[in-house]
Amino acid sequence: MRVVAPLAALLLVATACSGTGESPSPSPSASAEATGEAFVAPELVTVDPSIVAGIDVQVAESLEVGSYTYVAVPTFPNGADLTQALRDAIQLRIEAFQQYEVPDDADVKPELTVSWSLVGSSPDVLGVRLVSAEVGGDTFDGSSRTVWLDLATREARPVADLVEPEAIAELLDRIIAAGEEDPRVDNQRLYDQMDGELEAFDSVAFTPDGNLWVEFDRAQVASSVTPVGIEVEAEGLLSDFGEAARTAALEPSDPDVQPPPSPTPTATAPVTAPTGASSRQTQTLGDDTDCSVEQCIALTFDDGPVAGTADLLDLLADRGVKATFFMVGQNVAANPALVQRMADEGHALGNHSWDHPQLTRLDADGIREELESTSNAIEAAAGVAPALVRPPYGATDDAVAAVAAELGLSQILWDVDPEDWKDKDAGIVHERVVAAAHRNAIILSHDIHETTRAAYAAIIDDLIAAGYTLVTVPDLIDDLEPGGRYFNGD
């Protein structure tokens, strides 16, 4: 279990609007003024995801013309139905974003990012907090929703189920009272919002003291550009399910999810791997590999690690190939053993931000938080800090470059993109990579896609047969400068 600052997970939304004329903060409450004590925002308990054996991350990413979408949710062994319940919880938000019409004169692409954190874990209950950051043109939206999954019924339980039915009125009264004591809260907004009673909020978790963390979306109860969490005394309120959820938060354990009682869903058709023009190829890389002489190419993979990354690592080891992995911090936290394996097997480790926002929307503090937290996670997993960064979507500017330089990170872009996120077809990915490959190329792919992983045996065989040496980015480019931008090795 770990405790985080209440709004850290949504820093990307807060910093996106710094310097844009935020509304003034509400005046401190009368009690705060009377005591003269500094207000301390309540804390939210989160759980280290690696406590769950076999946890993984399901990522859905789209870079369609006009907008970006990056949605990540956790997966659990024997828990396809649980992951679907999480996706159902955010589906309306995704659909609403997809219907947004991008103005013809928009100079920055609209973006929806959904990230997650584990806020409870036990054989009885799983709690997952889903954070949405939506930006479109000059507008933005920050919201959160906590889904409590009952492992006995395999269903997502509503907020009301955390509380005894006869205690709901008391809960609502305590929320109003706690809000009145919180200087971040605009009381009139709170009163207006609470007219909706239990429908006024859908993110409830726990604080380190075992109290309720009741969270409101941005602008619902405050002028804050991020959601606001209020601490509410839980004594006498919780139902049996609520008590189980609190135990899962304060005393987390591996849920050891069992198979659902219903029939297993019909398996999808297996992905057919393309066949390379050549037979199986291997290469042997020595310390004397010289890309000024050899025809080098750097294979790079974004957005992982996920469980399937292990299959790609097996392939790379079998072919004697080294690659560069640009990793998302929240996926690193869920799969630290894979990061350690990458380092042990000689691959280069790269930073791809914590939860994949456009860094150009953030101020320096927001960029730093995204990159620093990810570098720390990688170093904690592998014992080595990354020296490379790939800004999500390739979105960079002078501010991103300055923070990257400060953190000792060189910006690695690409010049070959098979758009593997778009077609999800192993044959097409293979054809595009092989056709576009050239000496000193940096090839972009995504190890989160099964079809991409399936394409790479034939890709590697064909590239080696064509005389290319497949190396890491640091092997391809000598003297990388922190903050510098590199599209290839030329």
UniProtKB/TrEMBL annotation:
Keyword Endoplasmic reticulum annotated: no
Parts of the chain that traverse the membrane: none
Region (Disordered): 250-287
Bias (Low complexity) ranges: 265-279
Alphabetized InterPro entries for the sequence: Glyco_hydro/deAcase_b/a-brl, NODB_dom, Polysacc_deacetylase_ArnD
Residues making up the signal peptide according to the UniProt record: 1-18
Occurrences of domain NodB homology (ranges): 295-471
Pfam family, one: Polysacc_deac_1
Keywords: Hydrolase, Metal-binding, Signal
Designated name of the protein: Polysaccharide deacetylase family protein
